[in-house]
Amino acid sequence: MTLRLKPILAALVAALLVCAAGLYMERIDLQRAIERQADEAAAEIETMTSRISRDLTQNVGVLQGVSALMDSGTEASQEAFGSFVAPHLRENPSIRRIFVVRDGRVTRVAPFTTVRGVSERIEARIIASDPQIERARTRNVPAMVGPATFVDGRVGFFYAKPLFENSDPARAFRGFTGLSFEIDEAVLCPLGQCAPRPKYQLALRAFVDQQPIDWRHGDQALFDGTGRKLTASIRIPGVRFEVAGVPSGGWLTAAPERWLIRGLTLALALAVSLSSFLVFGGQRRRGGVSRSLATTAAIFVLMLGAGIAAVVDRWQNAGSLEAARDAAQAELGLLASRSTRDVTQQLAAVTNLAAFVTAKPNMTDAEFREFAQRLRRESPELLSIRLARGGKISHAEPADSIDPSLLGTDLTRGPAEAALNAASIESGIPVLAGPQRLPDGSEAFVYRRPVFLGDGSPSRERFWGFVTVLIDRKVVLCKLGLCEQPQRFSTAVRLAVNGEPRPAFSGDDAMFAADTDAVQASIRVPGARIDIAARPVDGWVTISSSRWILWAIALPAAFAAAGGLLMLFVNMRGPQLKIWIGVLMGLGGALLALFSGELTQAVGALGFGLERFVWPAKMTFLALAIAFTINAVLAAYVWETPDGADDQMMRAPAILRSFVAIAIYGLALLWAAAFAFGLSLQGVGLTSGVVGIVIGIAVQRIILDFFSGVMIGIERPFAIGDWIEISNGSVRGMVTEMTWRTTTLRTSVPDYITVPNSVLAQAIICNRSRPNRWTESSVSVLIDMAVPFERVETVMLKVVEFARADVPNLLLEPKPSVVIADLKDGQANYKLSFFVELGERSDGKARGTIQRLLQRAFPIAGIEVAWNRSETRIADKDHSVREHLAEQDDFPAAAE
């Protein structure tokens, strides 16, 4: 393998390795993004299904009260039945009808209708030879029949519960209580499937008593597919809807941070491949900048690479913390959603009891106890059921669940919740209070609802009293997973009534503070909520699992990039390397700003009180780095530019460079002061204006010279090294220096002339170095008109060729020329024009040398010069000798 192929192959291998690492990182990012998408979608679908389960459970909970109503002594009339279920229908609009079936006929229905077809549809569905109905009767489990098409063409289900005497399956079967609901209104629309463009593509199927029924929605292949999918379920007593789905737009196919990863990969690949190429190519320093400056730039590269790795590490750690918090939030949210569903099912007893009171406002104590016992049999978590006729506690079941001394207590005056109870009468909103200790030592939440007769609207005139249930506190907490051992989370629980939180009754109340790192969720019921806060027992995960992989890749890559770029830096021009250093300093300042908090803490730990200077120092460093970079760019690409076709470099005047540099650094410091110390730039501007006016009056001439120099620097009529003439040639010289006040010229003598810039700004300037670095000069000689032009021309051109040896800046291209400028008194004025390159020398030496050689050459050629136009005559005596001498290539030497 030749030496030339080694660096190329090394660069390719290095670039391919970096690209492979980038593709791996992009794949990891995509996998994590899909996992986040799946977690978010699962949490969202679980929240929707839990909410539907809660609502459906609340809907079917009415049948618990209907069963108690129809089995309480004398069967309720249609009017009483209608009064009982009216509140349920108002609060649950997705319920179409509530009915009772006895002996194969619909005996009660609400909303009441005289259309026989409605009852016949119910009877046909409930009494038909459907195996579910028979199974429900024999096993005392609910049944769901459908799908059925209602009178208005909509599709729904009939949900029915068997009705036994005294709710005892061993006794006589008396029929069914049931309701009908629309599947779209109750299930599909809350899942977002009624929208024109659903967020999720879902499939549903239903099971009753663990047996599938003939109803499907969506693509059922989602249940059987082996790919990634989301699953959830909607549960009500005896019925389960299974849900499977995927995002409508599909799972992510591209990493969210792909462009960032690809950009970093490309930059790192270029850096590493360049480093490999330079290392294996054996590059050597060829007149570049000093090694110390190049080493400084390479150290900046190394520090920048480590800083970028630290930023990525910080992002990954923050992502790990955020992922852990999101997972905990999702888990806590699911527990809260399920608890909300369960609590809602328990609180259905309040609704049923309120409806029972509305139907039988003058019930006896025996009727209350029978109804309450039925409710407690179906919801054993209810520790106590109470009534407060007229606001005073009048009934309690079981009787030992209340201190007898509390009977007759006016709930609007005596208890701590009196104000809430009074407000509840005005608004009709239930009250949740507690936990409250019971006589047996247990604790319970108190849920109290006002009952209004008539149309049920809140009014003191229609106020009957309160219905109250007490829910076991331990059951609620266990539903939240707080009874499991060992506990993965430290938790706190509090009650909030009408939006006002109360102190935590379980755990540390500080976990609800505004600056806490705990995640929170709530169990919401009408009028109140139970807040839960949690954090991991061992603390949050703050270190990314891929941290060591990152540093294992980043540090060698940073060293490789620094080493390779060091070899590149030593071959750079100074201004170009300064640009690199400025950019690296700016990026370093940005990294310092990102780690502001950590750096302030580290400095504060030293104990010298220096932490207050961290922010100003960072802003000042960043501002100076930006100013340094801008000045480096100007120095490399603006202040020195190619001048004309000869590729000479033209340098801007020092006054302009100094003025711009000072202005840039001044603006940078003002910007840093404004950000770091809150300095008002408006006040600085006003103060500077007043001071400027005073100084300007005192030094008008100096200011005129200064701004004249600035304008000359902007217009650039000449540059350092140009030969110029001022005021029709009265002053002639090469520009050697431009300061903020004067311009210095060096004459051909050489002398130095200092010209104020204000004089230059008003003078007529002839730049002999523009548009080219060479200029035309001439010498004139009077010759007798009798001498042929060709002979004189030959001699003059020969003289120019011989003068080239003594005058390096005398040019033969463009070619010199001879013309007759004037004819007078028998004499011809011959003008020899030639070209001189204007550098450190002018055309003075060329003119002097050519005149000296002409003085020697004309006699040798037999040509006499008439130096005085009125007396000089040219004689042509010996033509043969003159012609011979004129033809000699070295006739000046022959004259010696």
How would you describe the overall organization of this protein?
A hairpin with a 2-residue loop joins strand 15 (489-497) and strand 16 (500-501). With 896 residues, this protein is an alpha+beta fold. Helix 1 (5-60) runs antiparallel to helix 8 and helix 2 runs parallel beside helix 9 (291-359). The chain has a five-stranded antiparallel sheet with strand order 2-1-5-4-3, sandwiched between helices. The chain has a five-stranded antiparallel sheet with strand order 11-10-14-13-12, with helices on both faces. It is built from 24 helices and 29 strands.
How would you write the strand order of the largest sheet?
A: 2-1-5-4-3
Report the span from N to C terminus.
67 Å
Question: Which structural category fits the helices and strands?
Answer: alpha+beta
The helix content is 40-55%
Q: Low-confidence segments, ≥5 residues, pLDDT <50? A: 282-288, 643-648, 868-886, 888-896
Radius of gyration over C-alpha positions, nearest whole angstrom: 51 Å
Q: Tell me the number of helical segments per DSSP (H or I, 4 or more residues long).
A: 24
Shape: elongated
Give the integer mean of the pLDDT values.
75
Strand % is: 15-25%
Number of strands: 29
Largest sheet: 5 strands, antiparallel
